[in-house]
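Is alpha-L-arabinofuranose placement plausible here? Inputs below.
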Amino acid sequence: MKKLLVSLICTVAAALSYAANPTFTVDASQPVGKVSPSLYGLMTEEINHSYDGGLYAELIQNRAFLDNATKPFHWTVVSDNDSAATIALDSANSFNDKLTNSLRLTVTKAAKNHPAGVANSGYWGIPVQSKAAYRVSILARADSNFSGPVTVSIVSDDGSKVYAKENFSGLTAEWKKFELTLKTGRVAPTAEARFVITLDQPGTAWFGFVSLFPPTWNDQPNGFRKDLMRMLVDLNPKFLRFPGGNYVEGDTVETRFDWKKTIGPIEDRHGHPCPWGYRSTDGLGLLEFLEWCEDMKTEPVLAVYTGYSLKGAHINPGPDLEPFVQEALEEIEYVIGDVNTKWGARRAKDGHPAPFRLNYVEIGNEDWFDKSLSYDGRFAQFHDAIKARYPQLKTISSVGNEQPERLRVHSRKADMIDEHYYRSVDEFIRMSPGYAKKYDRSGPEIFVGEWAAYETTFPPWDARSKKEPPTPNLKAAIGDSVFMAAMERNSDLIKMQCYAPLFVNVNPGARQWRPDMIGYDAISAYGSPSYYAFQMFSRNLGDEILAVASPETTVQGCATRDSKTGQIFVKLVNPQPTAQSLDIEIKGVATLVAKGSATTLAGNPEDTNSIDHPKNVVPVVTAVRNVKSGFTYTLPPYGIVVLKLSAR
Ligand code: AHR
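Reply from A.M.:
I modeled the complex. Tokens:
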């Protein structure tokens, strides 16, 4: 019904004759700047179970038994009236010095039809897909009284359905790795399932690491969820900013993103507490971030740890900071060094001989919180060391023009500064028309490394956010879109921008922040209206900025042109509850093709998408007729429209 209405409004709009409406002028006679080709990208960090329980496809929660020091969180005993078992953490029998715990399973009573063992419910359910092959990998050892078999299966929560089952034998007192494939038949997909390990005779076994992966993007073994990767690729991102955000800083120096601990075999990764209140497995480590960029054909924007952590610890510039400078230089070498360098060779050993692409390194994150005022000195030390070894790299200061003068970097000129804007919809509507006018066009260039509009009366970090839906509604997408139009109008200076946070696992226990762009549970995912607005902007972009003017209307917008094809993209945002007719005047174009197209996202401001209603608010494409240098177009209430017009 909504799609019909949007389509009707667009058709009526096209039929209207050119009349005295407010004018929206696009001056195509002379571009006013070059659009940054890297304007639209992605920002990511471990928050809201973005990786563990999100993009990183591992299905077992607490696979290394390290989530809690005393209890095997997320693991429960499986038995019936005729079987019995106990489980306990056992740090005296650990696989290595990284996986410092194991799970001891003691089955005291069991028989063929009465097995006993242990189950894991994954990250809010184990997703069962139809006709799918799951990779199982288990590190196990046993007492001399037991060598197998061990049965692994995916079973419905109520135990009535076994979706897939296999077993293995040959356990000894030594740790061994067992790898199996579990195949499901034709089933209705569900996440109401568990992963179960059972014995059908008494015995004691230890498990050091239990991993289960569904089919992944490009079938990579330590890979990513396919549905989420598809959604990201569909945004046409040009870069990925990682690993944070707060995640790069950690709460303390010890819990920073310590990249060396995140590479190599996953059984050698201890993981670490992340600043968002849960433990990260580090399964998605530095190499996986880089491969993620490669998979999306984007380039990394690498944030390095620079001696400030969230709970206030800072390292003084000078000798104390030097080890961290070296750590960052080695990290960069791991990314771009050739195989003859120490860390390039290590990357090759880890499976990726070819260096990755890298142009930007961000020095920390939100260092304006460092009230010791050490950032200027810390920035200088990192900047100088990076420039000395890698003069081609551009450095980004994490403190931008929006911060008080005394917190900014003065002793060096950063190539780029990172600005963050979490603002209410009304604030974005107010500030966007004049946005960036005050900034010096000669630089530094601007990276809007985090931003999002919130439709609530309180900001994202307010406790009340927890009670709101995890993803924003259409009203928020209106705020996002006026700001995106402003950034696009200024993209000679605003070189890159990315919405944040990108991901949220919608289960209440998984969330720390809203609004978020993409929501998911164990088995399905959806885009918020903000996701679709971003997609409309990122996928319809020319390379020349055209001047726009709309003095008589509350409609905000921008225009760009593809210099090769001559196609003009006019983006219009109507924040009003009523339709807005505009006289659109395109100056400086000889002839426009009469038929263009409009992509429209519109509805009621409170309309939104969710797991149950993933496509409630989605863009609709319609034809626009009678396009000429002056034509009337009517925007629907609360509407975001991208007009694609062709010049001859
Ligand atoms: O995006 C959520 C958080 O907001 C980021 O981790 C941090 O950089 C900012 O304060």
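Short version: The chain has ten helices and 33 strands.
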